[in-house]
User: Fold these one by one.
Assistant:
Number 1:
Amino acid sequence: MPLLRSWVDSANAPDHPFPLNNLPCGVFSRPGDEPRCGVAIGDFVLDVAVLEDSGVLNLADAPLLDVPFWNEVMEAGPQVWAALRSRLMELLGEGSVGRATVEPHLVPLAEVALHMPFLVSEYTDFYAGRHHATNVGTMFRGADNALPPNWLHIPIGYNGRASSVVVSGTPVRRPWGQVKGPEQAVPAFQPSRRFDIELELGAVVGTPSDGPVTVAEADAMIFGYVLLNDWSARDIQAWEYQPLGPFQAKATATTISPWIVTRAALEPFRCSTPPREVPLLPHLQEPGPMLYDIALEVGLTPEGGRETVIARTNYREMYYSAAQQLAHHTTSGCPMNTGDLLGSGTISGATKEARGSLLELSWGGKEPIAVDGGSRSFIEDGDTLELRGTCQGDGYVIGFGACSGRVLPALPDPYRRP
Amino acid sequence: MPLLRSWVDSANAPDHPFPLNNLPCGVFSRPGDEPRCGVAIGDFVLDVAVLEDSGVLNLADAPLLDVPFWNEVMEAGPQVWAALRSRLMELLGEGSVGRATVEPHLVPLAEVALHMPFLVSEYTDFYAGRHHATNVGTMFRGADNALPPNWLHIPIGYNGRASSVVVSGTPVRRPWGQVKGPEQAVPAFQPSRRFDIELELGAVVGTPSDGPVTVAEADAMIFGYVLLNDWSARDIQAWEYQPLGPFQAKATATTISPWIVTRAALEPFRCSTPPREVPLLPHLQEPGPMLYDIALEVGLTPEGGRETVIARTNYREMYYSAAQQLAHHTTSGCPMNTGDLLGSGTISGATKEARGSLLELSWGGKEPIAVDGGSRSFIEDGDTLELRGTCQGDGYVIGFGACSGRVLPALPDPYRRP
């Protein structure tokens, strides 16, 4: 599919993240105003809430966009998603007769603040990148036992914490936690010394389920995708995670990018999961390509310094797709809801430079990596970590917007309120 | 504290679960009516929503009880909780001048259906019963390595799934899942053959947190408690839980009792956690008694058969209190919200008859237990499992109401909708 031209000139630049082909969904506010739903187009955000209110957008019998989150649109289902996309293309396309109606409701992106684009119902984090699982397994259990026995048969996942999902730009406070190294006799309660990122893609569930769903049905339930950084305190995790999995190590924050890139916008970039080493059971088999070709990178900027790109990889490296993960999530009958967020798991590639966490990049701290003005094994206070993602189309790109967070120093005493 | 006498005669019986001392919070409906908030007193439920609407109950500037869940009262905080309890005691107490106003709004419990008493924000399940952890650890890792190294230092927990929490009386469908025993070369997708209960107490978070809280602050955040059965598919869990913990094995359903017994009603029954084998770090130490003396039992009724009580234990057997669990839950900065539900972990006692799961009672299926008309290693289709809990006061009891669920057969094909 080629670039779809818009009368919004900036959207037609071949490297602009928000061409007419994209139309990602976010929530914005002007200074002093309340947050409201918007769609990015070129250098602007279109105030779709006002367009619905005035009848220019007519999605359902009752308003869906009169709230500062996209959940009502998501719950309305694929027909409404398609109708919205089609109508926006009509209104924003080159030569549109609707231009005069719409143009007053374009707000420059430079003038707005961005907020959480949806209410997160529940958050699940997966472990579906083979290179990541192999790297971590090799560090902790040796190369011969790197992949757990179940790994090639089910997309391993665990429930995370929805309350700590935040939007890009929210500062992240280094957590305290209980830690104990093998050389200590008893644990200590202290700020994390091995605070890390996880480069992931997040799938946003649009329509709910009641009972097990197939992989194809699961794919149809997904409204769109965001970049996702699952901040991880490796030292807290190492002490707490046996036998019931990660808990407080992952509960400080999970940052997502501010725009939900819809599944429709990603369609041209579908690609297949890698060949299966062992056949999957029928209920997890994919009826077609379910991954996407999304180039990803991570930048680290020390306080007052310049950014170093520390990792470059691609979402197509995953072994399991979000649709497979969502299908697995329902096998027990577990109801899935509008606004559920599924993290892909850390996306690492085959090469050293393609690793999606500092744990892997520095190989557990043994091989610090170079950054502007020094080196890093894990995150230092004041560092800003930014994830970026791009699909390269035919004369255009689809961008996700940055997924960024700066790490603040731990509180001197977490129980003494300022 | 003695029995507080009410003009509702049935509430004064020394063995009635709902005396004036209790006043648990639920959501009820009459046939054909919408669900609404109510408080149990004797054989009745008091329609508190109508009392607020008419000004007899005056809790806040805006109504808190005009919705079919208790979250708004919970969020309003301890002063409102105390004011509500105090006003209801006044209205329902023997000799109350308010009797004529209130009496028309008593609805016989026999005539109502009970619903989820609150909206579950997120659900966390802990593993804080020492006898349970030791039993399970002995079965899986041997007696010498029964307790994981971290167990005596932190209340181990994992995030569960809020969407599958259901109220007592909701049937539970036996789940399908991926399983693989040590004797099989490859996994199979089949109905669970080791479906089980976990006898737990659930703590309901009333007020939210922002940053780490002390154990005393955590205790003050808790609105009340429910009985909780965390249905568990042991065969699915065994295959999936390494390395990231239980996932689909616990996602079919979690049943809670329909009445939130408030912390205020439980005050006379406070008791201490057992002596610490190793000292806890300061942030997890308790400023006073944080457990409760709650006698618990589990009944199993085969389809068409009679009930057998298969376990009797007490909540005071726990090693960690809900307040300690909640404090630990915030150490990373994880925000806790109104409506968060914390499962205590399986409550087993020291004796064989005091074990809170069939896994323990039948010792992994090796020692089936006797029930009416046969024996059980795990749950069979048609079995009803019921948890009950009682605090024995001075001439009265505090009851929780039953936490019950009947297990339906697995679907013949989970992907073929009826």
Note: The radius of gyration of chain A is 21 Å.
Number 2:
Amino acid sequence: MAAAAPPPPPAPVPTPPSTVPEGSTPLGFPVFARIRLAQPTDVPHIHKLIHQMAVFERLTHLFSATEASLSSTLFTSPPFQSFTIFILEVSSQPYVEDILHNNNPLYQPKVQVVNLDLPIDDPERVTFRSTGSSSDVVIAGFVLFFPNYSTFLGKPGFYVEDLFVRECYRRKGFGRMLLSAVAKQAVEMGYGRVEWVVLDWNVNAIKFYEEMGAKILQEWRICRLTGDALQAYGNGH
Amino acid sequence: MAAAAPPPPPAPVPTPPSTVPEGSTPLGFPVFARIRLAQPTDVPHIHKLIHQMAVFERLTHLFSATEASLSSTLFTSPPFQSFTIFILEVSSQPYVEDILHNNNPLYQPKVQVVNLDLPIDDPERVTFRSTGSSSDVVIAGFVLFFPNYSTFLGKPGFYVEDLFVRECYRRKGFGRMLLSAVAKQAVEMGYGRVEWVVLDWNVNAIKFYEEMGAKILQEWRICRLTGDALQAYGNGH
């Protein structure tokens, strides 16, 4: 659905391997998480991620996007001016110099090391192997956002349409990392707000958002004109 | 606030002057309503309209837009690709050929005649006299919208951020005309949705929107990260 899925709670405090006493079992499994701009070659993976989101939200009956419809409507403007996607990748190894994913001067990929208690068993690592990267790099999630506008502030903001992390990567801080990357971009561009929506019964997500400083606007409701009603109204009914 | 104000209910059925029986008092006062793309010279009027909206919503403490902030953030992209404003003008006379407002090939102004029972007494007609038009043309309202994106549909839509009609022009069908112009544009561009928000206690507006075929999404809440919280989160907190 047209909405940000709840991000996982923050990751546990990382345990750097260097602090593990000699002779004991290492506690941490480092994961190298990278956020980068999506590019047209990512569309097959993006399509699969959106479908997984539709399954998660039990809304597959509303899912009609195809790789072709995504390809023809995304990537039509420079990043941040219109629809923009950040891809979240994970790897057990540091990223090697990566011309394919480093060549956009508007956004340098950001890498963060996350130390996990247990290794992640990803049953779909072959399906989600990142195009053009070493075999170890896997796509774990994405965030789609675009500029919105506040007439009261007289300046733009960002609206987060979708935030999704694949199941086996949840509850490790990756959702927060994606949302934080959008907020950081908004601050860098001097934008006034970042907004998204949440389901009113999703108390865990609401608590998480409030703890990060977001306000939940209780009085506003979204109105949607679509399908036949849009056609009729747009044609002058 | 970042939201569409409720539009007035539809205008009464027009009474063409030709149907008035001879000898009786004419019932209709025709008003020529025109919807056109805003341009940079409209910014002073747009700024005043937004301020009136803030007064109407009792939210002037949140109003910080200036003519300069509007000028530097609007009109940075071609119409419909990013933030787009339709201006509503009214005149008691037909529009003469108007090079200034007819020169955008992406949108030809649309004129509609509305027959009113009583003439409109506009106390601000001098302030809102349209720039570059004959003295009779007055700006009565605006709608600001921009593309949003549905990953489930795999295509864009429009989000209506603000819809405002000045007080003396309300309840005559002009709000509906502005919203309809956005819907028509969405249909022409093959877009999948038009969305906006409404206050949950505004039962008249909700009824009006439902009658036009819109769905009110009851379960979703808007989350907003702004001000110091955005700065803190964007800077890595």
Note: Chain A has one domain: 29-235.
Number 3:
Amino acid sequence: MESDFGIARELSDLQKLRALYQPELPPCLEGTTVRVEFGDTTTAADPRGAHTIGRSFPHTYGQPLAHFLRATAKVPDAQIITEHPPIRVGLVFCGRQSPGGHNVIWGLYNALKVHNPNSTLLGFLGGSEGLFAQKTLEITDDIFSTYKNQGGYDLLGRTKDQIRTTEQVNAAMAACKALKLDGLVVIGGVTSNTDAAQLAETFAEAKCQTKVVGVPVTLNGDLKNQFVETNVGFDTICKVNSQLISNVCTDALSAEKYYYFIRLMGRKASHVALECTLQSHPNMVVLGEEVAASKLTLFDITKQICDAVQARAEQDKYHGVILLPEGLIESIPEVYALLQEIHGLLRQGVSVDSISSQLSPWASALFEFLPPFIRKQLLLYPESDDSAQLSQIETEKLLAHLVEAEINRRLKEGTYKGKKFNAICHFFGYQARGSLPSKFDCDYAYVLGHICYHILAAGLNGYMATVTNLKSPVNKWKCGAAPITAMMTVKRYGRGPGTLSLGKPALHPATVDLKGKAYELLRQNATKFLMDDIYRNPGPLQFDGPGADAKAVTLCVEDQDYMGRIKQLQEYLDKVRTIVKPGCSQDVLKAALSAMSSVTDILSVISTPSNSGNTPF
Amino acid sequence: MESDFGIARELSDLQKLRALYQPELPPCLEGTTVRVEFGDTTTAADPRGAHTIGRSFPHTYGQPLAHFLRATAKVPDAQIITEHPPIRVGLVFCGRQSPGGHNVIWGLYNALKVHNPNSTLLGFLGGSEGLFAQKTLEITDDIFSTYKNQGGYDLLGRTKDQIRTTEQVNAAMAACKALKLDGLVVIGGVTSNTDAAQLAETFAEAKCQTKVVGVPVTLNGDLKNQFVETNVGFDTICKVNSQLISNVCTDALSAEKYYYFIRLMGRKASHVALECTLQSHPNMVVLGEEVAASKLTLFDITKQICDAVQARAEQDKYHGVILLPEGLIESIPEVYALLQEIHGLLRQGVSVDSISSQLSPWASALFEFLPPFIRKQLLLYPESDDSAQLSQIETEKLLAHLVEAEINRRLKEGTYKGKKFNAICHFFGYQARGSLPSKFDCDYAYVLGHICYHILAAGLNGYMATVTNLKSPVNKWKCGAAPITAMMTVKRYGRGPGTLSLGKPALHPATVDLKGKAYELLRQNATKFLMDDIYRNPGPLQFDGPGADAKAVTLCVEDQDYMGRIKQLQEYLDKVRTIVKPGCSQDVLKAALSAMSSVTDILSVISTPSNSGNTPF
């Protein structure tokens, strides 16, 4: 099949139009005289992990932030990189495909060629397997022409998700050396960017000349931290799913007799479910983070939904739409514990048929309580990241089943007096992943691709390309790079066999912040959503006219531009230094000392690690 | 819940833009001086049924076709209806919601008000139940403003699908009389339009003044005959589904390790599956009509798919996309027979648990062979139209299961040498039904709404509104009306308990014509689709730019404009009459007689009913 990669193909009329779309560049990346300004050296967000991270990444931890500025920017310390020798860059798709991935290639390719037409971009064919096997496709204008602004990862393909074992890392290094790569760009999510950081460290240690750059591309939207506001693909996925959810809402309201249970993508975190709820206003959403935080059992969740159904029945409403993230099932404490037991037994080689007899008494009781179809799905072998095969576990059917049983019980008992409860279940997973990317994802990915070039031109290693202030128009976007190690945390408690890797620094999926503004917006509206059917239909993904420039609600309500604000702080400090120069008056010095002493006191107190165990973001 | 009908609501930006869209009218419907030309009296397409239909519909069978022409059209016999007294019209949504239904209301409302501002349009709330209970909502500009060009049936809602029993028909008549309706417009598919014809006949018999008009609105696209080229909703459904299928194709090509089995809507006929295949070029489609025509068993279908998987594996391809219509399961002869036995037992009141023990030996053998999840689904009580609960039967999972088992067998045997077979299943049903309607469906529905008015203004009863030449731009569309009875056929062999209604004339779902041009196009491309992955991505439904004006492939390849061609024939006949007037030369008369004798001979031969049992279209 590899021989087919990169072949030209027939595009539909709309695809052709999209292929003609030229994403804009923010002013700072225009032309060939981009300035780089280095900020302060970075630390890890979780100060408790900083020492461990520093020890694990001696060559790449603690590097400064980098900001890319336009040539005319008035920043004294910024430097213009004037030399642009031809360079060779490799690029690999890691992990699940995400709409917009192709545009990272395009942006990087254009930036390479603008700065030196003799530079080379090699795509690895078939993902990390292609990297290990040194199978490449040289990107050319011709090859790329039918992939501009198009979905999927089919220009290069992808296979396994990991570059982690010593064997894999060595194979990657051998490939980079054999192909004489100056840079390797890794496109992926949390896992792949952790791998990229590890590769960068290993390469630096081994004095391999290849610099490694990561790009945040994952439709789950869970690679989120101070430096990274959102991920390529998330916007498209939420828009396509919100369209479908809205269609189902309209359907529910037309027939008025079904409850739709819809399972959405989102494994460790419920970002997609939250965003889709804010876009399409279904009646209810059950976020994994809420369930985990409140330690809700399967029975609690069932009861919550039944109470909602009952409250609506009292208003003579017998329809509704309820969203669930696929990771929900692992957030339910007792189901998680059951899964852990099952996975443990599977890893010991216990056959599927004998597992139920070897469970602990309480796990066995829960297992036997569950309907047969779910039992079968829970018995599937866990994935490489130790989680259950979440796309295969029909949590929506389980909950629909439990709710129906409970409503029937209440009906018999006389506490529920409404009509029969009818549920229809859906899983909205794979049908969105291959979508044409939204304008936002096209632009964001293209700009990130450009930044990859500037990171390599600046000779940086182990950085992730970043764009901040994304809720503003492209001409206000701020471009930079942050060491991946600065985004790492150290997990204190491992999961199952993950205890082996206890204390290993890594990027971890950011979960929905239950104290954040997006969640607050959901809570404020939850009752209206539940009772008033204020369904909102953003419609199918548009590329022109209203809606085409819409951005994710969660992106727009959250505080943003951490990178910009870090720069702003630097400017304040510089200003103090300029005003309080030796020779200034005693009064000025006194005022400065008093004010700064107060500031440092406050900051010391609030940034001391607490023992409450809160994750920092 | 009824109190919520027709309330204004928040629209998204895209919905607002769509609400501003004003569908065009073909020139023949512009202004208030539309001419009506009556064509020849109609017969039924199946001459064998004509007598039965005529006997069942003495008042409404054999009425002429009606063509609506512009005031300036040079047609001698056409009449302009000059009187437009205020009239009262009721409108009811019947059956499953279909995108565009709202625009029929809008078109009718505008036509009513243009001709007489004192006319009244009443919508029945909650479908046929609302008709029986005389629950209405008067349509006003204000009420309709947020429903223009919007999906769903939520302005009025819908409930039961039938107006058929004596009690129901009487309730409908009582409503029409009580509300002093001049017209009743029934919006729906095959079943609802049959009911409309029956109502029209009953009303005429009872001298009820209300005229009944049907409108072909059904997303299945199976209300198709000489007069009706396509149905409102079909275009949108196929576009939304093709978008999702294309996304899945891109996904398959990116990961190269999954076969996707996708079940689509389409109960008695596979029009949606055929159209989506022609739009998005998946690897394979299994049409119910092919299976029925070739009497393929479950094992034959499994083998066909396995052979395809094997052929692709030989080219190192381990991914693919396979479409199935939801009605497929009933097309498989042995499964159909099993379902008939099960439904018979269910109707006799046999409990679900005892059914398997009461099946005939061979049916029992098949039943026990099937995996448990399918057994449970086959045991569901049949729907009101005697078909199985097709939306609940996961045919895609059954076939994926059987294909996997067979591939594993071949692997063991050594005949299949490829990698492991992995299947992922999807049902694309409800997520398209509530979509914003495509431009085509907005226009088509709006024009049909206008035609309803002209049918009523001409005093016609038992007609369906028709638009032909739909593949051309709106300004070439031809508007008319045909008696519903002319579209009826008489089924010779009843199904199960349907034998009671043996010989009762009705509209029947048109199945995919295996000799038609659309199917031929599929066959010509089947091998390329299967082997070459020439996936085509029409992209999400657009309302502007490329793709926004795309029409269904099946609509564009089929012969069209039957109504137009019938008119053309009339013109030829008139011309002959004009040329061969008394007083013409002997030679002219001789030539005319000779030619006409030959024409009539040929036509007599080819229009004599054959006994081969072919359905006429």
Note: Confidence is low (pLDDT under 50) at residues 496-501, 611-617 of chain B.
Number 4:
Amino acid sequence: MTMQKGNCLVGQSGGPTAAINASLLGVIQGALKDPMIEKIYGMVNGIEGFLKKNFLNLSDLFQEVEQQELLKTTPAMYLGSCRYKLASKQENPGLYEEIFNQFKEMNIRYFFYIGGNDSMDTVWKLSQYAKEISYPIQIIGVPKTIDNDLAGTDHTPGFGSAAKYVATSLLEIIHDTYIYDIPSVTIVEIMGRNAGWLAAASALAKKGYHHSPDLIYLPEVPFNTYEFLKDIRELQKVKKNIIVAVSEGIKDQHGQYIGAQNIGQGTDAFGHAQLRGAGKAVEYMVKNALGCKVRSIELSVLQRSASHIASATDLDEAQWIGQEAVKAAENGVTGHMMVFERISQEPYRLQVGSVPVEKVANLERVVPREWINEKGNNVTQEMIDYLQPLILGEVSVPYCQGIPKYVDISHLHSQKN
Amino acid sequence: MTMQKGNCLVGQSGGPTAAINASLLGVIQGALKDPMIEKIYGMVNGIEGFLKKNFLNLSDLFQEVEQQELLKTTPAMYLGSCRYKLASKQENPGLYEEIFNQFKEMNIRYFFYIGGNDSMDTVWKLSQYAKEISYPIQIIGVPKTIDNDLAGTDHTPGFGSAAKYVATSLLEIIHDTYIYDIPSVTIVEIMGRNAGWLAAASALAKKGYHHSPDLIYLPEVPFNTYEFLKDIRELQKVKKNIIVAVSEGIKDQHGQYIGAQNIGQGTDAFGHAQLRGAGKAVEYMVKNALGCKVRSIELSVLQRSASHIASATDLDEAQWIGQEAVKAAENGVTGHMMVFERISQEPYRLQVGSVPVEKVANLERVVPREWINEKGNNVTQEMIDYLQPLILGEVSVPYCQGIPKYVDISHLHSQKN
């Protein structure tokens, strides 16, 4: 197949991570090196923004190495995001015509979409349509999510940094908790709607001098209140300060979210329920049943945006996979998602490949049951071995007047009119 | 006055900070250098632990420079803490006899207590009693609090690091928030029961390319729901993503905490109410009145324990003031609290002095009204100038297997029996 000279378009979509800008950088760097690619356009606020003709000239903006390095360690999404699930061609054929007319007008031959499994659905639909109308374009998905729940890849860019944040925060909470000589229970709520990968990362906080978190609950095993309180009582016989890590998505045996205190946020555009309160719910269980000092801590959005403590391994891998996406496009690949394959554990080694996106779009990869202990209240050594390499290495973020220096995002100011 | 050779006792008390171990190090280093001081004892879990004869030999534990440096950058409290307000001599004379018998038995001639204003009350009572019974001992308070509300000192050790954490977190939340092109309000709840110093530090997040946080509410100005919603509506005419910083201690015009959703935690031993929910309460106001997308984020205990992003200025100052406490004791000072005096702003320069502790114990230093704007929804340039130097400089924390390396606290395991 003869590759054609043309322009490249890249977008970001879904929820942010500390590594998605590193992947954007990888795509930009790969595209700058590619003689077949002329201009590099970035769509602002995903497909929604593209349809409003809102894009940036990234070749101009990121020529300088200094600016590239700043982009790499900046949290959230330089190109903004959208939670916009593309309607199918059957539902809205006009939409596809509109998108591809725009592609033609801008001579887009390469389209890279950096996002999670809902975004891979977009990659699938667009690449199908391109085939149908015989429009010559390479459409490739670059994976991204802090939840680590994308199928087909050993792990996802963005996860390692969130895991490093979780493990570091747990360690600091442990130090904070151990100072009082009275019985206490501390519940730490960690992101993860249906997959417990991030909650599992709390286990990386364990050191020789302490054994916390003492209990870890993932969504993959039904949460049993009676067993949980029994676990707490047993532990309270031998230690004073108990630390419990819970995933926000823990469910009971009927599949109902423990934290389903929906405060009227409804659902997001992808139909995901807005969860509140797994940590609070578990805190109330302890308070009501045991009456001891108890508190819950929600780790909040900083799990995905605390770039000052990103994992260097994660950012380097995210950048690499962006570069590889461009190489794959150069080789004629389309309708694929880029993936990591772990070819060895000791030493830790990866290679990058790609899989047909229909094999991964709309799927969710959860924690294997055998990586959770039998009681369902902790994780196994196998899980820890899997996680450990992903959080290694610290990034060097520049500071200015005491706070991190990140890239200018005034183009996202979203001024009205 | 002839100083006597003897042993030194040091303790930590109250709520933890990222800098209180740096002050402990300063006291240890000062004491190691002092030929009048023989042994350095650390009381574990404050006065309560001391009465149970729970103490460590710090001269042995911190001989090595490597161990000292590790202590400096470790969060929370190496010696544990207690929330124990010493009864007055009238209420419990036997208690004072017990404490001073123990002092005599251990030949304690120097006592350093690192804590907040409730702890300074302990310093006052004990130094009064020592005078009454003519027991030769230098008793000195070393200040500590993330709230910056100790009277008599320009600022308090621990505050600068918490301020750096708040400003950094705000910046990262801003990046996270700006990615969506739909109207939203994000409320960030920051610690500070009656003093708004820490909430004010959110203003340090402002950069050239964004102007958030857009609104800042401190406890010093009564919070008016109507005015707040008016402020939000006005802002929504010109920008989409609004970021609001609120102190946990904001109160209405009757002095009632906005976030007074007491979930049954009661009060702590010092009679402080356990507050929950200023951020949530404000979130509900917006949700109910305006119906737009809104979320609240509670910054949690990491404000005081995230040592990986401590302020180098704060830690250096905390260490210095600990060393100066020992010098003051060498010079015969007793019943004083060590303080900072800012002798110049440009360049930023301090000197360390001390004040009689009865002038500061049980007092609370709040934000001056003139450092808050007229509308009561932001802070002035004078506030920003005051805060800026306190957050400068980044610490170099060693990492091990992807997370910070902190000092071993297994002596605080608080095993039962």
Note: The radius of gyration of chain B is 22 Å.
